[in-house]
Design brief:
The complex is a heterotrimer of chains A (about 300), B (about 240) and C (about 625). By secondary structure, chain A is mainly α. Chain A has helices at about 1-25, 30-35, 45-55, 60-70, 85-120, 130-145, 145-160, 175-200, 205-210, 215-255, 260-270, 275-300, 305. In chain A, α5 (about 85-120) packs antiparallel against α10 (about 215-255) and α11 packs antiparallel against α12. Residues about 305-310 of chain A have low confidence and may be disordered. Chain C contains 19 helices and ten strands. The chains are: A mainly alpha (about 300), B alpha/beta (about 240), C alpha/beta (about 625).
């Protein structure tokens, strides 16, 4: 029943994204076709383009056609290149997914051990220096925007030192800078969260009891604490994954990464509204799906919430 | 959490005492209170005793209008409630004077309010000059008195005391229990005293209702119920009360 | 409030930014706008430290002059976001049930969309350019603030004082303005400060992507946008705007977030971490050998937390098969005594004195010995069991870790111990939440029996349980002690529980044992505090026609305990000696004026005077 409700919410949200992306084109002040083709385009060309795109039909018809198109995999046609938007997105999406997936794995792999280690070192206010170093470093990293890191890394490692390729996607080396720039913030945030959660759980009675049983500290941390901090970590991880999609737009722009983000920026800057519309739809659908997947996975993981008694 | 108004207000004429007929409280598919009826006269303390999950707090919350219910409630105008946790029941940003006069309505002048605040505090055995203090400056026992004073400010027809001493230290508990008895005597208050502790209930209350799984299994005067219990469950409860050797 | 280094560092950055925002265009505005066709697109030089742009304008001057516009736009966007967000978040508090739920759902839905995408979307709709970007960033920051407002408001709304206000007839709007908003204002304002930082970064991002400020206007993002293609040739040209964005954005976020965290944090207990460090380690007293019969011998146990001493010189013994009770109010030091006996006093607490388990100091016992010979039971059995692990797993690990058993053997032992404590064997594969409260506490006791316990320390083992369940669990503890011959320490705030289950009772007050008395002689106790405690608790035989005794005032917090009898200012017998000299525990009572047996009227008359009560609830205890 819990899952059922969650799926219903997902479908409703998805509907919201569809409506929003449809409305986008019509919320733009003035005529999007005129805006795209520029003020010098002849009136008859604009009118022909409008009717080609179906923009002269009544709104309900347009919406039906839009939704129907989505179900057929037809996301409209780029105003500029006149390629089907679905094709453009199909070309560009894999690079984005690779970038985001590698980044997320790196963030989890670094943040969880780091946060647990920091918690163990700073329990009950001991290890003041470790705490200061940890909170300062993660605090700074979590607020530095990814594009600054990216630009900085390009300047240092790409241009000055020449160690790494500065742009494009070509082999493992080309992943290093984009992934690091994108991963820094989420890693810092997650590490902080893992530390706070672990510290909270360290105060719980079951930890006291585990210690009273004189279990080795490693066992207390891995066997007793980790499963209990995982829920919060994965929840936040899921939210971060969705926000990584946003961050990837900038990273792709800076590194000229052949992903969807670059295409979206070009479309918006170039007033290619049809392509922008399709990109918004796809991004929205992906983040909603990620959040759904995380929720469902958590339902499986967390026995208590699966029971529905303390959802 | 949303708060609900009474669904069936019934007769809300002024005056003390309350009559409850066939009260039911449901949370989703779960029935917490399943057809409870009782009566509290003016100047009477009815003890509602039961274990966790018996529905005793739900009865109190329903009568206070904090949860929706079905059934008939007659009387009990301006029902007020005092809660278990002395730390959560006062707004940390409001001075004691403002907290105590919250129920007085807006028709009073500043001086009248100040006078009334002092009077209410003195009614519950606190010094009138506490009006300018903040809750954090008060001890648990003092806070419970302030909560009582705030409730009295509304001139309640029924006062619900929900486990008001269980969060207090033993040495302070006695004073609060004495106060409840004094208020009943001096103000003729009708009180629903909700507690898990039979010994406390026996000391404070005139009559006792024993609640189990949402139903009253036994109801009578304190001497009847604690002296010669009629129901097996009441006997079990009495036997379980720890005794000083 | 303790200012963290992060907050301090942020404050410096913010101040710098604000000064530049005011002065920037006046001081460097002209220089920043000065065309110089002879020196376009240059790198670092002594005339232009950070190079020039395509118009030959100085990048450093342009960066500094751009501060005002960058900050202004961010502030506008934040203001928009704050108004939208706080309104959306506070709305459910004044709306009806259904509308409130709808608004909350919309806000939650919006937070699922990545902020930058939302900003780009809004910017696109509002038109590419400065206004569009401001609207975009503002709209994008609204959902987060709305959700925060909602969460904070919901927390306050569930407080008893809001319920009380509604019972008193206070309207929804007034509840919002009088109770909810004042209690959430502080974290909210700080979060808006942090949001300003994010808005700065967001505006810079949009401008960098070419979707924000358009020429001839320029903000830091625009400067970055123009300089980015040149990074491969003259990396220094991006240094100015990049550094500026970093300084300002990080400054605001650090200030807002670190202060918001500090505001949300509960205050540090008084005295923790200050005061003189006291000498550590066992205060070994030569000539004192342990009594051979005792399972537990505690000598002069003192626990320090910084300069505070919540446990002061506690000594007692527990013999094999004996149950010793410790009773006291919150803050008396009884729980900390239990933790010290278990060797579990948390950092930064320091323990002095001797704790001997079967004649051996705790520190000399191995992990295995401690893990098998000492069993502990805590107050809340639900939190004492790990929610993520099956009951059997948690029991079995003592056997696998300390006794070297295989998993199969350990599991068989776990089943046997569960059955012995009255838990059905199939519960071995249940999770703790699937058990009732009483069953959980039985499982915890069974866990203690996995080894060969010589001492069981039970700290308020039944406080979280119903009375009928409490009785059964206490019965079980008694049986276990009888069967195993272990000694037990039973700690409770409830003098009746302790009296009914123990052989001897220690009464603790303000960190000291004030009386040690056989359980059946509690009614004839000699210390005024014990007598008052007994008199203040009604039982089924209390005379209902008399008021209950109560003790005026409150127990002093550990940091306020000094020389003299700690109970003196609440005691009817106190005189100058009591105020001056700390009474020693002699003949089972630590009092300068102990009652003889049969004396009456030990404490001040049950006073209704609340004035004497001081805000003094200590933590712990």
């Amino acid at each position: 029943m819990r899952w059922g409700r969650r799926v219903v919410r997902f479908v409703l949200s998805l509907g919201g994204v569809v409506v929003a992306s449809f409305a986008m084109l019509h919320l733009i002040p003035g005529d999007p076709v005129r805006a795209a083709l520029g003020p010098t385009a002849p009136a008859d060309v604009v009118a022909r383009r409008r009717s080609e795109l179906g923009l002269d039909r009544p709104l309900p018809d347009q919406f039906t056609a839009y939704v129907g198109g989505i179900f057929r995999g037809d996301l409209g046609e780029s105003f500029l290149s006149r390629r089907p938007a679905a094709e453009v997105i199909g070309d560009r999406l894999p690079a984005t997914v690779q970038l985001v997936a590698v980044t997320m794995l790196l963030a989890l792999a670094v943040a969880v051990p780091l946060g647990m280690w920091a918690a163990a070192r700073t329990e009950n206010g001991r290890g003041r220096c470790t705490e200061l170093a940890f909170t300062t470093a993660t605090g700074a990293l979590s607020v530095v925007p990814e594009f600054l890191l990216a630009v900085g890394m390009v300047a240092v490692f790409g241009v000055t030192l020449g160690w790494l390729p500065v742009a494009g996607k070509d082999g493992p080396a080309s992943f290093v800078m984009p992934v690091l720039a994108l991963a820094a913030g989420p890693t810092a945030l997650l590490a902080r969260l893992v530390r706070v959660e672990t510290l909270r759980e360290l105060g719980a009675d079951y930890v006291r009891l585990a210690r009273a049983k004189r279990l080795p500290p490693v066992r207390v941390h891995l066997r007793h604490l980790l499963p209990n901090t995982l829920t919060a970590t994965l929840t936040t991880g899921g939210l971060l994954l969705a926000s990584l999609l946003g961050g990837s737009v900038v990273i792709e722009y800076v590194f000229q990464w052949p992903g969807l983000g670059g295409a979206a920026v070009e479309a918006i800057a170039g007033k290619d509204y049809a392509l922008a519309q399709a990109a918004v739809l796809v991004y929205g659908a992906i983040s909603l799906t990620v959040l759904l997947a995380v929720d469902l996975a958590l339902g499986l993981l967390d026995r208590r919430s699966a029971l529905g008694s303390r959802g | 959490m949303r708060l609900w108004r009474r669904q069936e207000g019934g007769d809300r004429a002024a005056g003390g005492g309350v009559k409850v007929v066939d009260l039911r409280v449901r949370y989703g598919g779960f029935t917490a209170v399943d057809g409870v009826s009782f009566e509290i006269a003016e100047g009477e303390v009815l003890g509602l005793v039961g274990e966790s999950g018996s529905g005793k707090s739900s009865v109190g919350r329903a009568l206070a209008g904090l949860v929706p219910y079905e059934g008939e409630v007659r009387g009990g105008a301006r029902t007020q409630m005092v809660f278990q946790d002395p730390y959560g029941s006062l707004n940390p940003r409001l001075r004691i004077g403002a907290a105590v006069t919250e129920g007085l309505g807006s028709g009073l002048s500043r001086e009248e309010r100040a006078r009334e605040a002092g009077r209410l505090l003195e009614t519950v055995g606190l010094a009138a000059d506490l009006v300018g203090r903040y809750p954090r400056e008060l001890s648990g026992g003092q806070r419970q008195r302030v909560a009582l004073a705030r409730a009295l400010g509304a001139r309640p027809g029924l006062l619900i005391a929900d486990e008001i001493t269980s969060a207090l230290d033993a040495s302070v508990q006695g004073a609060v229990l004495n106060l409840v008895r004094d208020l009943r005597d001096s103000l003729g208050l009708a009180v629903l005293f909700v507690s898990h502790d039979l010994a406390v209930v026996r000391y404070v209350c005139d009559r006792v209702a024993v609640l189990r799984e949402g139903r009253i299994v036994e109801c009578g005067t304190v001497d009847q119920v604690t002296g010669s219990p009629g129901h097996e469950y009441t006997k079990a409860l009495l036997e379980a009360v720890p005794r000083l050797k | 409030m303790r200012r963290s280094p992060a907050a301090r560092c942020g404050a410096v950055l913010v101040a710098l930014t604000l000064v530049l925002a005011v002065l920037g265009p006046w001081v460097w505005g002209a220089e920043a706008a000065r065309f110089d066709p002879m020196h376009t697109l240059e790198g670092h030089s002594s005339a232009h430290w950070l190079g020039t742009d395509d118009g030959g304008r100085d990048m450093l001057a342009r960066t500094l002059a751009a501060t005002r516009l960058s900050v202004l736009l961010a502030a506008l966007a934040t203001a928009l976001g704050a108004v939208l967000g706080v309104t959306l978040g506070a709305l459910p508090s004044v709306l009806g049930e259904r509308a409130a739920r709808f608004v909350t759902a919309v806000v939650n839905g919006m937070t699922a969309i990545p902020v930058l995408l939302l900003a780009m979307f809004a910017a696109l709709v509002a038109g590419t350019g400065t206004a569009g970007a401001v609207v975009g960033i503002g709209v994008a920051s609204a959902p987060g603030l709305a959700r925060l407002t909602r969460t904070l408001a919901a927390g306050v709304e569930s407080a008893d004082y809001v319920a009380a206000a509604r019972m008193l007839g206070t309207g929804r709007v007034r509840v919002l303005t009088r109770h909810i908003l004042p209690n959430i204002a502080e974290p909210l304002i700080l979060s808006v400060t942090a949001a300003l930082g994010y808005a700065l970064l967001g505006m810079a991002t949009l401008s960098l992507l070419g979707l924000g400020v358009q020429p001839p206007d320029y903000d830091w993002g625009r400067l970055l946008h123009d300089a980015l293609p040149r990074v491969y040739v003259d990396p220094e040209v991006i240094a100015g705007p990049a550094l500026a964005v970093a300084v300002a954005g990080i400054g605001f976020t650090l200030v807002g977030e670190s202060l918001a965290r500090a505001a949300a944090r509960t205050p540090v207990p008084p005295g923790a971490g200050k005061g003189a460090e006291l000498p550590l380690g066992p205060a070994s007293r030569p000539g004192l050998s342990s009594a051979s019969e005792a399972v537990l011998e505690v000598r002069d146990l003192t626990v320090f937390f910084g300069g505070v001493t919540p446990v002061r010189g506690v000594s007692f013994t527990v013999a094999s098969g004996e149950v010793v009770g410790i009773v006291g109010e919150s803050g008396s030091g009884k729980s900390l005594t239990a933790l010290a006996v278990g060797g579990l006093v948390p950092y930064p607490g320091r323990v002095r004195g001797d704790v001997l388990l079967e004649g051996k100091p705790l520190g000399e016992l191995s992990r295995k010995e401690l893990g098998t010979r000492l069993a502990m039971v805590f107050q809340d059995p639900l939190s004492a069991l790990n929610p993520a692990l099956r009951v059997g797993t948690q029991l079995a690990e003592t056997a696998t870790v300390h006794l070297g058993m295989t998993r199969r053997e350990a599991r068989a032992r776990a089943v046997a111990r569960l059955e012995r404590t009255g838990v059905a064997a199939e519960r071995v594969s249940s999770f703790p939440h699937e058990l009732s409260g009483g069953m959980r506490q039985r499982a915890v006791i069974a866990m203690g029996l996995m080894g060969d316990p010589r001492l069981i320390v039970a700290d308020e083992p039944t406080t979280a349980l119903d009375t009928t369940v409490q009785r059964k669990v206490l019965d079980l503890l008694g049986e276990v002690v009888r069967d195993t011959g272990a000694g037990a320490v039973l700690i409770s705030h409830d003098i009746a529980v302790v009296s009914s289950r123990c052989d001897r009772v220690l009464v603790m007050y303000a960190g000291r044992v004030v009386e040690e008395v056989p359980a059946d002689r509690l009614r004839k106790a000699r210390h005024p505090y014990t007598r008052a405690l007994v008199a203040s608790i009604p039982d089924l035989g209390t005379d209902r026609s008399l008021p209950l005794a109560s003790i005026p005032g409150a127990q002093p917090v550990p940091s306020a305990v000094g020389e003299g009898c700690a109970f003196a200012d609440r005691c009817g017998f106190a005189d100058e000696v009591c105020l001056r000299e700390t009474p020693a525990l002699v003949g089972g009572v630590a009092c300068h004026h102990p009652s003889g047996e049969g004396a009456v009227g030990a404490s001040k008359e049950g006073s209704r005077d609340g004035r004497g009560e001081v805000a003094a609830e200590g933590s712990g205890g």
